[in-house]
Amino acid sequence: MKRSSSIYTLLLIVVAIYWSFRSQMPTYKSDVSSEKTAFSTDRALAHVKQIAKKPHSVGYAAHKEVRQYIMEQLQTMGLQTSIQEGYTVGKTGNLSKVINILSRIKGTEKGKALLLLSHYDSNPHSALGASDAGSGVATILEGIRAFLAQNKSPKNDIIILITDAEELDLNGADLFVNEHPWKKDVGLVLNFEARGSGGPSFMLIETNRGNANLIKEFTKANPKFPVANSLAYSIYKMLPNDTDLTVFREDGDIEGFNFAFIDDHFDYHTANDTYERLDKNTLAHQGSYLMPLLHHFSQVDLGAMKSLNDSVYFNLPFFNLISYPFDWIWMLFGLALLSFILLLIHGFRKKVLQFKEIGKGFVPVLIILSINGLIGFFSWSLLKWMYPHYKDILQGFTYNGHSYILAFTLLSIAVCFWVYHKFKKVEITNLLVAPILFWLIISGLIANYLPGASFFIIPVFGILATFLVILNQKYPSPSLLVFLGLPAIFIFAPFIKMFPVGLGLKMMVATTVMTSLSFLVLLPVFGFYKKKKRLAFWGMILFFACMISAHFNSGFSKENAKPTSLLYVLNTDTNKAQWATYENSRSTWTKQFLNADKKSPEEISLHTISSKYGTGFSYITDAPLKQIPEMLVEKTADTIVGNSRLLDICITPRRNVNRLEIFTKTPIESASVNSVELDGYYLENRRRNKLVTHYISNNEYTDLQLKIPNDAVLELTLYEASNDLLTNEQFTIPPRPDHNIPMPFVLNDAILVTKTVRFE
After folding, report:
1. 676-735 pLDDT, tens per residue?
2. What is the 3-state secondary structure of 510-538?
């Protein structure tokens, strides 16, 4: 291939990669003065701004303010609102008093209702919740306003449910699905969520059966920017998260769609989840889903959504959502395999293929996958060794994470070009056999074990077509080769970024391997390049440039603040106090309280305290003793019935608290907390030593009703926490510097009082 052709095709590929990302989302434009009947991103942003002023988790003062704001907005639209209130405990043993917000638009026919879902609580204790899930609430409020402005009567009822305590244990959804009478009317749910502050919103289906009818109706609704594929739900299930919609599916057998964005993951559940940092394009994307789906599903028969059949589906630029039945999976694989065999026969007959040369073609494939696989696998460990403070970003996605994704993508490409430079004497026709065969093996394994990803066969047909062209033309059209490679670019490029964004930089191996596999599909283009060594060199230069850029942005600043943590721990059993932190690299602010010589998990007695990622204290040191009122523990009943002992224990706070955790190693036959029974499966299989975590509202008591073996001694370890360390009058804690934020996912800024009680 001529040098000019190489430059031309490389530019085409770069443009195609850019478009594979650019076409996923609308571009925000100020639309505050748009038609009243249209969804306005600016009007939705106004709601986000109000919701995300303060942290508003369950039990916080701003929690009530946000609830009141949402109800007022619905009432301003002429809708009647109601609340559903009650205690509920989730599947991981988290108890809270839930206050759900409900409203309903009556339809003209008696059928199943469409439910619009999001949650209004933010994560404890410092998250502002602009994205998670102020953006979801704002999308629904603005979408309903625009819908009502059109003065069209829906056939189906439209239920608006803004849940509470989603962040604690999906408690609000649990209360609605298991106790509210409207639950029986729901036919489909549209849930709006977030796990970051930007990027495209992915459509994720929740169903207990097949997805065929859901995909069929979603396609008919025709949202302009669908970002969806049948592999995404499999990836979603790998995340340590569920959503409210999961409760609808598991407990109510109700199907639905999640719409969630996951980029800029470093803002997730932090004080940086602000109105200013929410990507306006992302919010516009949520609106672009809601409006066509609201119009469509408010009119169709929602009782006909269930199906026993599944569809493979994926999005492509210009084509929106493409789908086909699972029945086609093996047919398409068989067609690809047959085509490959026929092309091999054709190549041998033309004497352009030779067995020995084909054998040489397997060597670069194995070298590339081995080298790039190892690079990706060890990259995150290496980065944490080079920058120990990355360990304090518990999401596993650093502020400069996108630079690392680009860097290791470029490094993988450089390795690919360098390896194939070493095999430049092998004709491209013979080199292509190994990548095709390798991709056919991958496609066969996917068809058998991960059928949702079977659309990966589509790019294989592209490389088969280029193989046919190259077998018959010594100098094929470069433009044609790029055109036939477009499906690979459009399908694979977003995955190269999505895996580490969604699952953390520990999944960089997915990026390097996916880049390598994509290179192999595009080998018909790259194989004709004469200057592969030079391209490998430039790939390395760009890799180092990205790494240098990442290095200069590896520190913390006001915009990209360091997560910090500080706790005061008072053990009432020993009458001793300690400072504690979860930080691996202590900040200057934390060093005021914690010495450097006490980093030993064996010394830390509170190793059982709950945290999302199992994070434990890293440093402790002695602290001055303060007079913190301890909880009151009262045994109000103790009865023997047969071989069991029934106890009723009431724990009452004597200071303003936010959370009570109760641990016990005693076998528990059954348990209720504040009259809510704990799930038997949880007690037997999931709780380990934890009994319950009560997220407390209005300083309410915790009442335990326990059934234990008659001969057992009940020992409870109680951890009572208040998130007021920085404001408590007994302490003089300097304010955090503006380049620090509270560490998410762990107990923070807390006064923690521990107590052990035994009931002989």
Report:
1. 999 888 888 888 889 999 999 999 999 999 999 998 999 999 999 999 999 999 999 999
2. HHHHHHHHHHHHCHHHHCCCCCHHHHHHH
Query: In 491-502, which positions are buried (b, 16+ CB within 10 angstroms) versus exposed (e)?
Result: bbbbbbbbbbbb
Beta 562-564 vs 311-316: how paired, if at all?
Answer: unpaired
Work out the end-to-end distance of the chain between its first and last CA atoms, rounded to an integer number of angstroms: 85
- Residue 738 structure tokens: 């503006």
- The tens digit of pLDDT for each residue in 532-545 reads 999 999 999 999 99
Question: For residue 241, what pLDDT band results from cuts at 50, 70 and 90?
Answer: low
Q: Is 640 exposed, middle or buried (0-12, 13-18, 19+ CB in 10 A)?
A: exposed
Q: Quick check: 516 and 416 in contact, CB under 8 A? A: yes
Distance separating alpha carbons of residues 73 and 79, to the nearest angstrom: 9
- Here the tokens at position 274 are 């602000």
| Cβ 172 vs Cβ 163: under 8 Å | yes
* Phi/psi of residue 99, nearest 5 degrees: -130, 95
Distance of CA 43 to the CA centre of its chain: 26
CB-based contact 702:694 (threshold 8 Å): yes
Beta strands in 512-643 (DSSP E): 562-564, 567-571, 576-581, 619-623, 632-641
- Is there a contact between 311 and 230 (Cβ–Cβ < 8 Å)? yes
Higher pLDDT, 760 or 635: 635
**Helix (H) or strand (E) segment spanning residue 82:** strand 81-89
**396 backbone φψ class: left, alpha, beta (φ>0; ψ -120 to 50):** left
Question: Do residues 187 and 305 lie in contact, with contact meaning Cβ atoms separated by under 8 Å?
Answer: yes
Residues 362 and 348: their CA atoms lie apart, in Å, by 18
Residues 6+ apart with CB under 8 A from 184: none
Using CA atoms, how far apart are residues 41 and 142, in angstroms rounded to an integer? 8
Entry field: residues in the chain: 760
Please state the pTM of the whole predicted model.
Answer: 0.94
Q: Which residue has the tokens 């080079």?
A: 386
CA distance 599 to 578: 13
- The residue ranges of DSSP E strands in 465-539, in sequence order, are none
How far apart are alpha carbons 416 and 401 in whole angstroms? Answer: 23
Which residues, including other chains, have CB under 8 Å from residue 50's CB and lie 6 or more apart? Answer: 66, 69
Q: Is 49 exposed, middle or buried (0-12, 13-18, 19+ CB in 10 A)?
A: middle
Q: Render pLDDT for 246-282 as a digit per residue (tens, 0 to 9).
A: 999 999 999 999 999 999 999 999 999 999 999 999 9
For the chain, give the mean pLDDT: 93
Q: What is the pLDDT of residues 571-581, one digit of tens each?
A: 999 999 999 99
684-708 burial string, b = 16+ CB within 10 Å, else e? eeebeebbbbbbbbeeeebbbbbbb
* Identity of the amino acid at 138: A
Q: What is the pLDDT of residue 614?
A: 74
Whether 492 has a pLDDT exceeding 60, the answer reads: yes
In angstroms, the CA 678 to CA 525 distance is 61
Place of tokens 């041998």: 348
Q: Which conformational region is residue 264 in: left (phi greater than 0), alpha (psi within -120 to 50 degrees), or beta?
A: left
- Report which residue type is found at 145: R
pLDDT given at position 610: 66
Rg, Å, the chain Cα set = 29
What is the C-alpha to C-alpha distance for residues 288 and 295, in angstroms, rounded to an integer?
12
Question: Who wins on pLDDT, 323 or 32?
Answer: 323
Encode pLDDT of 383-402 as tens digits.
999 999 999 999 999 999 99
**Six-digit token pair at 27?**
């571009």
Residue (of 77, 128, 121) closest to 99 by Cα position = 121
Query: Which tokens in the block code for residue 665?
Result: 């190693």
Give the pLDDT confidence score for residue 242 in this predicted structure.
82
Q: What are the tokens at 224? A: 């302009």
Instruction: For strands 702-709 and 670-673, give the pairing.
Output: antiparallel
Say if residues 524 and 473 touch (Cβ distance below 8 Å).
Answer: no
Q: What beta strand segments (E) does 416-500 contain? A: none
